Queue: 4 jobs
Job 1
Amino acid sequence: MIQFDQVTKRYPGGHEALRNLSFTIDSGEMVFLAGHSGAGKSTLLKLISGIERATSGSVLVNNQNLSRLRASQLPYVRQHIGIVFQDHKILFDRNVFDNVMLPLNIIGFDRRDAARRVRAALDKVGLAGKEKVMPVRLSGGEQQRLCIARAVVHRPSILLADEPSANLDRAYALDIMELFKSFHQVGVTVLIAAHDETLMEDYGRRIIRLREGQFAS
Amino acid sequence: MKHFFYLHWQDARQALRKMLRQPVGSLLNLLMLAVAMSLPVTLFLTAGSLQHWVGKLTASPQITLFMELSAEPADMAAVQSSLSSHPRVASFRFIARDQALRDLEQRSGLSGISEGLEGNPLPDAFIVTPKPDATPEQLDMLQKELSGLPMVEQSQFDAAWARRLHGLLDIAVKLAWFLGASFGIALVLITHNTIRMQILARQEEIEVAKLIGATDSFIRRPFLYHAFWLGLLSALLCWGLSSLFVNQAAPALNEFSRLYGENISLSSLSAIELAALAGGSILLCLFGARLAADHHLRKVRAH
């Protein structure tokens, strides 16, 4: 469960990315986050994953108040969250398999179980058989899938995606959306940020619309 | 718990594998550390074993009394009686001049030397061993006292030079410790720099790992293990270098010591000394790595 209570985020320099925002996302819900770039979508996702801290108000993730958590505790919160980064953040110095292995290494997973899970995750996103390929050789869509595989391999309870379908053609973007839907169907809380609302409307899920750091409605 | 050790073992192995993947670079790095370490170590070994030898000499100093050539048996008896009643004298030995000449012939291999000489040029002598608890000052007093005995021409305190050498070697050992301390600091700085470069080279990986939930200790661990291997392997390499030195220098030192009828054994590091060296260098390397990691991981923030 994710709960925002009167959350304001002001960056150094005075820019207010989020203003007095309150909402709740239930466990297992699939929610879209819409708004133009600069509306505060990415900031909202960063607050949930503890990458940024709220200036005021409280952010509750899985019943933990991130604003009160010590910095040394944040990694353990993040280990329960899967993040699909807007800029992918793939490591180009290692192959596909090792990229997906990273979260399991961090948690300290048994190596054999881990290998099985990595293969399962790659299979799920349609990259089976590309384990040994270096990420440079992957297409843009495949890199996106690699990023998704890495985000779900440790079976997080919350999945955050920042513009997962940007720069992809519509057919590919729909594929990716279906993928997220399948994670939602097995009980994962899914929050997808995108500026293109046409994709979201097809799914009939709740849409949180942001404009200049506030609800736009 | 078993799993915890398994993860550490995994990191240790990976760090070692990473070093082996760049054999030349790693070897140069290790050599730099080992050479820096072997300087104080070899100085310590040499000064230590010399001091051990000199220490044996000073532990049982001897005073040699040379009698006048014209001394009569009655004079010998007088000296003998005052020596045997002296409270600071533990024992003494009389070497008659004839016996001294025979010894000389035997030892130098110049048999028949006496035939070329007009009579025996050597004096009668007493070799006096003082009580072992005597202080250096008391020994000096004793020497003066004994040289004042009738018909004693000269007295020689054979440990005086040994004590001076002992003092000199004391300085050498202190110098070895000082060098050891400064090279220890160098060790910390070198590993600090090595690990800093590694962190900078893997900045992207560290950033991503932090973003997906890596704790600081997870990120630090591979670097600390790298430092661990640096410390261990450079200590072993240093041991190899100093053993090589010992192998080269020991025959020369033996030759030298044989001139004095002594046997100085120059030995390599003992097992305990090697363990202490390895432990010390590992600790110093870990310290340097930890400093570098703490300093730079604070800079690499998750964004």
Note: Chain A touches chain B at residues 49, 51, 72, 75-79, 81, 83, 85, 89, 91, 93, 102-103, 106-108, 110-111, 150 (CB under 8 Å).
Job 2
Amino acid sequence: MKEHAVKSQKMSSALKPAHRTWRGWLMDWDLYLLLLPGLLFFLVFKYVPMWGVIIAFMDYSPFRGILGSEWVGFKHFVTLFTYDQFWRIFRNTIVISFYNLVFFFPAPIVLSLLLNEIRKQVFKRFVQTVIYVPHFVSWVVVAGMTYLMLGTQGGLVNELIKAGGGEAVPFLTTPEWFRGLIVSQSIWKETGWGTIIFLAALSGVDPQLYEAAIVDGAGRWRQMWHVTLPAIRSTIFILLILRLGHVLDVGFEQIFLMLNSTVNEVGDVFETYVYREGLVGGKFSYTTAVGLFKSAIGLIMVVLANWIAKKFGEEGVY
Amino acid sequence: MHKNTNRLRTFTLVLAAGALLGSTVGCSGSGSTNAADGSPSANAKNPNAKRYKISMMFPLYGDPPQKAEVWKYIEDKFNIEYESMGVPDNSYAEKLMVTVASGDMPDAMVWTKYPDPEFNKLVRQGAFLQLDDYLKSAPNIQKIPQTIWNNIKVDGKIYGIPRPRALTRAAVIIRKDWLDNLGLPIPKTVDDIYNTAVKFTTGDPDRNGKNDTFGIVMGENVSHQDSLWMAFDTGNGWRVMEDGTLMSADITPGRRQALQWLSRLYQEGGIDKDFAVLKNTQVWEKLESGKAGIMLGGQTSDFARYVENLSKVDPKAQLIMIHPPVGPTGKSGFAETTGFFGQIVLPATLGKDPDKVRRIISFLDFQASDEGYKMGRYGIEGVHYTKNPDGTLKLNNEKLKADGSPFIHNAYDPYQYVVTSAPPEVQKQQHDNLDMVKDLGIPNPAVSFLAPTAVEKGADLAKLRDETFVKIVMGKLPIEAFDDFVKEWKAKGGDQITKEVNDWYKSQKK
Amino acid sequence: MVYKPTLGSRLFDTANVVLLILCSLITLFPFVYILATSLAPLSQVLRGGLILWPERLTWDAYHTILTNRHFVGSLWITVVITLVGTFTNLLFTVFMAYPLAKKRLKGRSVILFLVLFTMLFSGGMIPSYMVVKSLGLLNTIWSLILPGAISAFNLIILKNFFQAIPEELEESARIDGCKNMGVLFRIVLPLSMPALATFTLFYAVGHWNSFFSAVMYITKSELWPIQVVLRQMIIEGSTQEYQEALSSAEIQVLPATIKMAAIVVATVPILCVYPFLQKHFAKGVLLGSVKG
């Protein structure tokens, strides 16, 4: 399908060599008009408020405002990097992010592929509707349920273990279990929701392509490889690049609720650190600086990922 | 394809209709809110005749107050148009900051955090109005004890009106029926508590044949142990040591002893094994579901709710509040609170309109008066309550709850914690407990002081403390780890903070 | 479609069905817990533990919520916000995604990068608040709709979907005399129904769940959407200040049944949206008909 598209584009460009540029502008004035509301939106609501990032380089006082606050340059960043637990936080954040990438990111893809193979529409629709329900359950409830299932006093799982003659396992207070728990919760909660995009992409696949593949003698797996996967390939890449932009964001509420003093060494991440610091009061500039640092790293990752994607012939984000 | 274009058109039309509808709703909502200063009506001759528009912002913990009878009463009485800006409490801190930064502050705001370095900074930058002179003509507000005023003054001047609360209002709560079932007396010392807790865990006190109970309830970061700490003389925040200097309660010898006591009890099963992951609501549930027998750091007001909920689970259960346990050196009690919860501040820009300020102050003064306090709690006679022949009040709790209260201030009433919708026996228990604990508060000598280093390093030191204490109690670290913790605490800023606090303390004494 | 299922293929199908049933059970499980708790009598709930079946159907919690006047009012507001908001979102997003899907558009890369940039960097709450304030949007529902008119994420993915539509379909429409707008409405949009349905869902859910913006921009409690009102019923706070307020008997703590019923009430309406949109996920129905 992609070859067809490329072919026809080459043909049309061959037809109009020199006049393509100005003809293009003229032909597309209405496209620029269409862009206008969106551009205006981004300008007003995203770029105008962007001045807020300057707070990271000042000792901002909300009452005095930007003009009345003192410029301190990189002081906050120095404070951050010289914080004696900086590497612990950084490491924890990266590790959880990495686990999410390896285990959580592919889950919706796999699930949507499996769902796509179901022929009975009724069953398929039922499962689709059911699996995204956890997305609407708040993290507070998820954390509460986790405790009801994994607590050592009365927790479901541990009661079963004890009934079987074993010793209760302190799932919630052992660092070794923490990361696995976090990723499992994320998978449980968000996989269903994540399949929606892929299912939308898959529903756009031309059934004639499947017919053609079968005529060529392709079995189930080859069909999936040659027809199904390519249909969602660009979506996967885009989502991957976007996710990499948030490499240092691991979801405050979930981790905050599951964090306790016994698992700090693996669970303390940037967001919980910022929250703690913010509790003491008046640390806007510092917390903004930490946020800026996270965004900067994210930007580097995105630019890199986009460049690599393009090198492989894929559509990048930009 | 045509079918789909048509569908698309219908879809668009429906939503366009919705958009029109939406803009009418949106427009009717906007009204004229932004002007926070008084928009005077025609007659401006007599200052009392001027109808002011007054907006007040405060944290909201339930439903917003309704524009019902009480509301109308105060609008008439003070000739104001009252705008109540209740903000959901879990986002209150952010909303406060955004409001200050936007330069458009309401006429009065409740500042909840104390002590707050940001607040002090704002005062010094001139954000809030100085209130000393205005308060001279506010008799009811003046009734607030002097110590509280001293605590909230910044650079010797008053910038906020504190909302008074009783200094001590905690409670030790215990299952009387379990004590009776096991033939145990009411525990008086910490040793008694220890033994009782162990028996509660091992002795099947609820007589149901199952090993599903335990002694002392506790939450994450070793919470809810107020009376225990005081019994071991850890001090509240800072302890006045024998040589007259202050030491942080986190590192006193009493703290070490208490932790050792707790870790031994944990080993014997007298404490909830899962305490490290429990949030507040989960801690209460342990008591309410009949799993725990003792709460060493509860609240008198909560007692009513515990009794009510527990009775639904186990009608035979009996909860009582007892005297806090006595420690090895003969001490007992609870940590004294600041004596207030939040202070009401006015923006400095309001200074341009002293009449308006006076109106606001008189309104707040009313809220602090007996009459105002009763109205805030019980509503208006005939509407929200009727008087019984014996003088007590029959409250229409439903209407009270539905209307809410537009008041943000209150009078000084130590019995405020008696829950008026609870059965009379429970109210009496609460009343008695409040009487008992009134003088059992142990004050924090440095409660109003914020050491600069504490602002910088406080969060970290607190985290270190919590991690260490939790691990010691759980047995993951030996008690000797406490000594290492003290060293680390001192090195990471603790010594600096101690010095700053002591310097301040000395300067206060003269 | 002639298709001879092999043994391996049939095994796969069975295993697939079993796996999906398992997934359904696991994901349905928390909701069963929530639903059961909301319908259980208080005595069962207070006893604690994982409730999966109410001992006795108790409708008290729902009664409390549905008769709360704030709740009913906020329900109406939320519906309006969701409808108007989602329509606004789709309008803005589609209009911006379509041109950006054309590779020949000048400045496309730059614009896309700028859009992506906003996903990573933001000025924060204070500047956003000031912008909304200076536009006079405070205390109107537009403060909940306009600042979120386009989600950069949705925009990028929608652009991607538009790009997947084969060029020759557009070419054939152009030959028939269509301009850009015509192509958009006659070819691209009908073929993008699955994508549009997806983003309708995403945006609608976003509006339905909006909480923080409402608290920041709207102080008139009559205009609060449903999530704000519900969260006031479900007190989760464990902050120091909350403890202070609690101990002064200012708040009534509502039992778990009401918390759960609130979750059900807040979630069920939006859950019903997806089944409606599902029919637009039908496989490539339109591609064939247009091609001919």
Note: The radius of gyration of chain C is 24 Å.
Job 3
Amino acid sequence: MNQSVPSVVVKNLTKRFGTFVAVNDVSFETRHGEIFGFLGPNGSGKSTTIRILCGLLRPSSGQASVAGIDVARNPEAVRQRIGYMSQKFSLYNDLRVVENLEFFAGMYSVPKKEIPGRIAWALKMAGLEGRERNPTSSLAVGWKQRLALGCAVLHRPPIVFLDEPTSGVDPVSRRQFWDLIHSMVGEGVTVFVTTHYMDEAEYCNRLVLLDRGSIVAMGTPTELKNERMKGQLLMIECEPLGPALELLQAVPEVVDAAVFGSGIHAVVADAVVAAPKIRELLSAKQLHVSRIEQIAPSLEDVFVSLTATRGASTKSEAAA
Amino acid sequence: MSWTRIVAILRKEVLQIIRDPRSLLIILVIPLVQLFIFGYAVNLDVKHVPLCVYDRDATQTSQDLLKHFQATDYFNVVRVSDSYPDVVRNIDYGVCSIAVVVPPQFAEDLHSSGHASVQAILDASDSNSASIGMGYAQAIVQSYSSEIQLAWQQAQGLATGAPSVTFEPRTWFNEDLESMADLVPGVVALVMAVVGAFLTSLTIAREWERGTMEQLISTPVGKLEIQIGKLFPYFVIGIADTAICAGTAVLWFGVPFRGSWVVLFGCSMLFLLVVLSLGYFISVTAKSQLGACQMALLATFLPTFLLSGFIFPIDQMPVVVQWITAILPARYYVSILRNVFLKGTDVRLLAGDIFALAAIAAVLVALATRSFQKRLV
Amino acid sequence: MNSTPAILVSSIGKHFGNVRAVDRLSFDVQAGEIFGLVGPDGAGKTTTMRMLAGVLTPDSGSATVAGHDIRLDPEGAKQDLSYMPQRFGLYEDLTVDENIRFYADLFGVKRKEREQRSAELLAAAGFAEFRSRLAGNLSGGMKQKLGLVCALIHTPRVILLDEPTNGVDPVSRRDFWQILYSLLAQGVAILTSTSYLDEAERCHRVGLLYQGRMLFCDRPEALKKKFPGGVIVVHSSDPERVHGELHGANGTRDVLLVGDRVHIFVDDAAKRLPELQARLDTAKVPYDSIEQVTASIEDLFVSAVEREAARQSPAKLS
């Protein structure tokens, strides 16, 4: 299903607000029928990049094109070719379901003749048939999410931007939502997701990790976990934890160690080599080790290992 | 009650006030601006009434009469007409509000029969100014008439006539009837009421809106400690503002100050207690800053302006309205201020007003205290 | 471990109009433990926190925090607890130092002790040189850390944190948790809430909340074992084909596309794995690996919620 024609092309994109560089020389491409994720904490430049791609902000330098249209030169045309679903949805709670759809149909200049058809299609997709006269405020969060998605794609755009689409939503609704997204993607739509929620990023086909305006990594979730993680992750359960942590942090083979729940996660160069050494070390100091095993890193582990080594201690952190 | 906690709240409040340019604006600039606006622009004296004169007699005598109109400050001769249509046109266009027409046989009539009339035409669309202007015109003509009579009597060698009763009005306390002296003390009350309530109305509402109140009420701080700590800076600011307004009134506007400074500041503190507590209560009730400041303005500006006796005398109001003013703290404060500035009478005569103000203060402080709860929703 | 829990919640309830925000909730938190309340928005986490912090009155049930009954003596509890609400609750127009001093004064911390503790805490949090910066000019992660410093400036026995690391960068989030873990040795009890299911793994025990009720309450490891059946993950360059092929196969409850993988929920992983592998091989669907994995807490949550929904009204299944 993946065609290799790029739908979003970004080259050396930079955006400055005064002396503050919000987006720093960012480059990437997305393909049709792909779920592309933009992962990074608040303040990393995600929202700024999205706004540039939606034609709401002008880039300071570099180029960006969406569906073949240069966003700097033709922002209005871009907006007709994209759908945008914002965080916490921009639905009008005091309107009925169908009234919200009609409103957005108007906003996206859907041709009048096609509006009833599109609305019917959106209702079917969202599973809200028969409920179109219900007030939007009466919908549960999961349903509102699907309605918001419906509103965002009434004009059948080739590219859809989802901004933190499932933050705070219950897991059942979230899975159903992603089923919906997958069916859209199956028809060739490119879905661009921004999130700070590492869990959510797992649903993406490809990811870009953003830290303070720059890309630190790009690839599929599996690639990032296997290849970009510097080192391997060991899970160590022992008692007591405090002294164990201090000891481990002093060991040269241990790149990084942090408490995690009732155990310690330690980043080492080679897990097979390091594990027995660590067991020996801890036992020698009378620290009872109940478990040492290699575990798969999470995206957060990847992120931390990449950003912590960028000299990103808070001492040099420029405040927002 | 912990002194440390009260001081902590106080210190925080002061830092926030200093760092918020808008509140500094309200504290310093608005009182002075209001004082100047009311002092200068709102002038209830009617002076320099634009006058049109039409002399159809054109004699020494008629010119003599018209000179009386020109000589006075109360009239400003803006047009000398030469026809009735011209007079009418000038009144229509608002060039003048009064026209004085001397009839053609004026001098002759006066010397022959001893009677003559003068016509005055006025634009009564502003009936207030018109009737006052009419009064001036009549007074001028009357005085001219007396002058002529006296001159004639003296020329005839007659005694100056039988003694007559003359009406000699003497206004006490405000000899020039300068409305400024009357207004400015009232303006001080208006300014204090609005500024006091407005400033405090934001304080609690702002913390709810910004989300800092939720964390604050999860600490052991007591609600009375919060109230005292928050209101005290505004109390000090209020006293300072009172001093600035009173000082400006006396030194700039030349309003006399005949009473005691102790009474002024003592009663001002009572009034401040009232308005600050009112603002606090509004802040607790409104929960949003926008709602709070709207309520504060509504509750202070209009009642003080209309019902405190500041501009419109209370005893001229309908009885029902007079009853309403009985619970208005500004009414008592305005009365006290007028006394302190203009009359300077014994403070014991103010006891009624002071007592009423104190009673209202007690009620509002209690209301403010009770209304605030250390709970959400 | 202490026998009297630092926090004891018994059947606590709160409703807003017709909505039952918290419905007969019971759990306990021991001293020296981090307990996580986990659930989506609207599950009742914030309402529960607020009741325990004494800023919201429960409608039913009771709770004790640091030995104080929060219905009878909420103000007493406040001396021994610290609360960090979901929304940043410090003063943006005061500096870091001024905020710390303010909260120290509210709890009656003497000056010398305050200076010492704030120096320690700021150093641990890594922003000792930002003392005179206005709190409003701090980044999100630093704001949350400042919130924690102010919460710890007096020595509370219970700390209540409502979604403290929402949107915070992972490095700051780690620093934050590091500080929390260091407190446990002093016997502090920490109750935190989150809608991130992966953050639940950082807690000693987790309570899964949904629509005001607790579905499960146990250690993360134990919870994962509670998952009925097993989970099989297939890595593939063409996950849609895998999905298509395995959907509806024998013994599969659900097949989920997750990025470049396919998650298959089965009744018996050991039994079904070779079956599914055979299907893929027969259909010549390309895949890189197929293996059994431990269920995640989210998987458990989903299955519990689905069971709950099915039990309430079969017709409601979406």
Note: Chain A touches chain C through 56 residues (CB under 8 Å).
Job 4
Amino acid sequence: MAAFGIRLDLRKTKALVVDDNPQSLELLSQILSGFRLGQLKSCLSAGEARSLVARERFDLILIDFAMPGEDGLHLARHIRSDPSLPNHTAPIIILHGYTPEHLVIQARDAGANMIVRKPVAPAILLSRIEWIARDARQFVESGGYCGPDRRIRTLPLSPETPERRSSALALVGNPERAMSQDDVTALFG
Amino acid sequence: MSEARVYKVRNRISEALLSRDGPTADRLVSDADAQVARLATRIGAFVTDRVATLTAFAEQPEEALFGGCRTIAEPAMNIAEVAEAAGLDAVGAVARGICVMIDGLISQGIWHTDALRLHLRALTLVHDQAGQPAALTIVEELRTLRRSLGFTE
């Protein structure tokens, strides 16, 4: 949750909301209006959104994951794919009715900054916007990915790494011995 | 091997945090909550309409359910996306369960006609008993059922 005492002035923020469900679109628009966003544009399809993001610059883009035709992930990838687009690095929040791990990973790999479950509760959405406002991650462009740096932490090798490696090699070096799931898991640990 | 390009981008909304005279987060949330409350009646009517659409599928034969699963997923997702905003949490939860089962077919290859039919019938039940403890019990039982069938959510 956003810290309740914190002050957030979104009057200069221009956002785009893309959602094929008119009720959900209205809900999001009303929430953002309650947050006193300076300017809000909305559309019901990825096709409409494509033409908007090609000619206008947004500070925040919210996209529904599940839309008929072109879905939200395709749209996010499109926005990230072309450096000449004015929204190439704009913060993107993907919204979906449920958020199992595999969908979260898909959204992250499409270059989204965040995925939020619908229906969106105002307190949750504001806390996510605050999180993005504080986000200092760098941007990464590589072969198949464009978006915020997906590395959330870098850890040094732990001191016992050589011992663990040798025990793993010992297991591999004894092919007659059937490996248990614990043995296999240890190789990746 | 291609190299990754890593660079700093200007955070477009970081300036929102620099305000000294802007509204507090609790004020923004309460204003947004009030806006949402104004939509409750309209969303409730929308959910009722979508529940009727889905309930009709419950009596369809297995082939029709299987063949029309994407047609079922759309109104189910429509409900899951907004029902809680109208206080219809249990209806939203059952609709979300329907989406999970159809997504399970697409991503995991799991299909279970009776479980899907049970969810479709349960929608009417929980809609009629909104806010009642019985509705929450149905939601929990359906969640347990999905878990036992291997659906991940």
Note: Residues 158-189 of chain A form one domain.
